[in-house]
Each structure stands twice: as structure tokens, then as C-alpha cells.
Design brief:
Largest sheet: 8 strands, mixed
Distance between the termini: 42 Å
Order of helices and strands: EHEHEHEHEHEEHEHHHHHH
Strand content: 5-15%
Number of domains: 2
Subcellular location: Cytoplasm
CATH superfamily of the largest domain: NAD(P)-binding Rossmann-like Domain
Catalytic activity: L-proline + NAD(+) = (S)-1-pyrroline-5-carboxylate + NADH + 2 H(+); L-proline + NADP(+) = (S)-1-pyrroline-5-carboxylate + NADPH + 2 H(+)
InterPro entries: 6-PGluconate_DH-like_C_sf (IPR008927), NAD(P)-bd_dom_sf (IPR036291), P5C_Rdtase_cat_N (IPR028939), P5CR-like_CS (IPR053790), P5CR_dimer (IPR029036), Pyrroline-COOH_reductase (IPR000304)
Number of helices: 12
Function: Catalyzes the reduction of 1-pyrroline-5-carboxylate (PCA) to L-proline.
Strand order of the largest sheet: 3-2-1-4-5-6-7-8
Radius of gyration: 22 Å
Structural class: alpha/beta
Helix content: 40-55%
EC number: 1.5.1.2
Number of strands: 8
């Protein structure tokens, strides 16, 4: 594997594609390789134009910009909205290099869609990153296509590892991964919202309530990360016998949170399957 990465294009470099692009630039792995990014508007393109080594293309100024970017890249990220993916693939298919690796960032678009449009021999991977990639703490699920080699997977892993960790899964598990890590940040933010509201109800100002709640979630996550301990063990260390935490934990466990989270994950998975069918 070379020390630096090959040329990369982000077609539809929105928040997620832009995060990965920024992580790649910050890592220094790209070296002198060409990096391309496309966005519909000049304003969005301008946000990426200052990144080292990046050619940022506004499609409103250069309608053929996706084709130019794709033709110059070894790895091509597809970051447009799911409904726009088929048209984009048809647009760029004639311009793809023979050794191109196409990576989908689009939720609900199957590998079969890519195979049908691009052909059986094009290396394709389906990915599901999450928003903490914006701060280098992302979790990305990765699915390889039939024509994708181990070297292709390793190369794409290196790209995603610039913004977090990577888990390779079979395609029939990508919806479940999305329900856990893809949607998961929203579940955490909801818990922060609810605990902040409780703190306000107990007399704290909004600012103090946010500070103590957000600081607790951030600190607990950092401790989990730093120690590598099982979360159940860290919970036990906080939960003194017959103490206040034990009493609160009993209430939470009595509410059958495991069933609630299972039901939430099942709902997300069901919706992902609906989206894949165009519903």
C-alpha cells in the first residue's frame, strides 16, 4: 500500500462528504494527489476551495463538473441525495477510469443499483458514516461489492479512518448498522435534551443545565474511550450499593429501556427498507 493516497473525487460534497474531505486533507495522506469536490452552488463550492490541493467545482458554473472530477479520480465518492444517484451514475459512467473505485454515501441505495448502471466489473462500496465524522470521531459501516478487491477495501478504509473507525459488514446488515451508529447520535442528543430539561425543572439556569448535562455525557464518553473498560463495569463503579445512583438506575431499568431502544432500532430499520424501495 503506498504511503499516500491516490486522487479522490467527492461528487456532492455536502456535510458528510465535506467532513471526509477535510479529514483527508488534515491527515496529510493525500500528499500531492488531486482532490476534487463538486457542489451545485458557487457558495457551497467556495467553502471548500481554500483546502490544500482541492479543486472545488460549482455545477451552476460548470454543468459538466461531475464528469471532469470523476474522470480525474481513482476513488469517486457519491454524496448526492439518494433519488439523484441513478442519474449521476449514468452521467459519470462513461468517464470513469478502468481502475476506479466508486463509494456510495447515499442511504438506502443498494449495490445492485450501482451494478445495474455501472456494470459488473466496476469496484463499488456502500458506506454509512455518521455525523461525528465532522470532528474525527465517526463510525463508518462499509459494504464491499462483488468486483471489489481486498486492496480496494483497504484503500477506502484508510480514507474513512481519517475521520474515525470503520466496520465492514455484509449488505444485509447495513440497515441495522445505520439504526445504531448512523442514527445513534440523534438518540444521544435526545437524552441530553431530556436531562437538560430535568435539570432546569430542578432550578438550574438553562446555561448551567446544559453545561452539567453536556459535560457529563462528554466526560463519560471520554472516560469510556480512555479506559477501554466495559460500560457495565464503569456503571457499577458509579453505582454505590444502596446509594442515590442505584435508586435512579432502578427506575431507568424498570422503564424497560432495553425494549424501548430495541423498538426504536427496529423502527429505523423498517424505514430504511421502505426508503430502499422508494417509499
Amino acid at each position: 500500500m503506498p504511503e499516500t493516497l491516490p486522487s479522490v473525487a467527492f461528487l456532492g460534497a455536502g456535510s458528510m462528504g465535506g467532513a471526509i474531505l477535510r479529514g483527508l486533507v488534515a491527515s496529510g495522506l493525500a500528499g500531492d494527489a488531486a482532490l476534487f469536490a463538486t457542489n451545485r452552488s458557487a457558495a457551497k463550492a467556495a467553502e471548500l476551495s481554500g483546502l490544500d490541493g482541492v479543486t472545488s467545482i460549482a455545477l451552476e458554473e460548470e454543468p459538466g463538473g461531475n464528469t471532469r472530477a470523476a474522470s480525474g479520480a481513482r476513488v469517486v465518492f457519491i454524496g448526492v441525495k439518494p433519488a439523484m444517484v441513478p442519474d449521476l451514475l449514468r452521467e459519470i459512467a462513461p468517464a470513469l477510469r478502468d481502475d476506479a473505485i466508486v463509494v456510495s454515501l447515499a442511504a438506502g441505495v443498494t449495490l445492485e443499483t450501482f451494478r445495474t448502471i455501472l456494470g459488473d466489473d466496476v469496484s463499488v462500496l456502500r458506506s454509512m458514516p455518521n455525523t461525528p465524522a465532522l470532528v474525527g470521531k465517526g463510525v463508518t459501516g462499509l459494504v464491499r461489492g462483488a468486483a471489489t478487491s481486498d486492496d480496494d477495501v483497504a484503500l477506502v478504509r484508510r480514507l474513512f479512518e481519517t475521520v474515525g473507525i470503520v466496520i465492514e459488514v455484509p449488505e444485509d446488515r447495513i440497515d441495522a448498522l445505520s439504526a445504531i451508529s448512523g442514527s445513534g447520535p440523534a438518540y444521544v442528543y435526545l437524552l441530553v435534551e431530556l436531562f437538560t430539561r430535568v435539570a432546569v425543572e430542578h432550578g438550574f439556569s438553562e446555561a448551567d443545565a446544559r453545561a452539567m448535562t453536556e459535560g457529563t455525557f462528554i466526560g463519560a464518553s471520554a472516560l469510556l474511550d480512555a479506559t477501554g473498560e466495559d460500560p457495565a463495569e464503569l456503571r457499577r463503579r458509579v453505582t454505590s450499593p444502596k446509594g442515590t445512583t442505584e435508586r435512579a438506575i432502578a427506575v431507568l431499568q424498570g422503564a424497560a429501556l432495553d425494549g424501548v431502544f430495541r423498538e426504536a432500532a427496529d423502527a429505523a430499520i423498517a424505514r430504511a427498507k421502505e426508503l430502499a424501495q422508494g417509499a
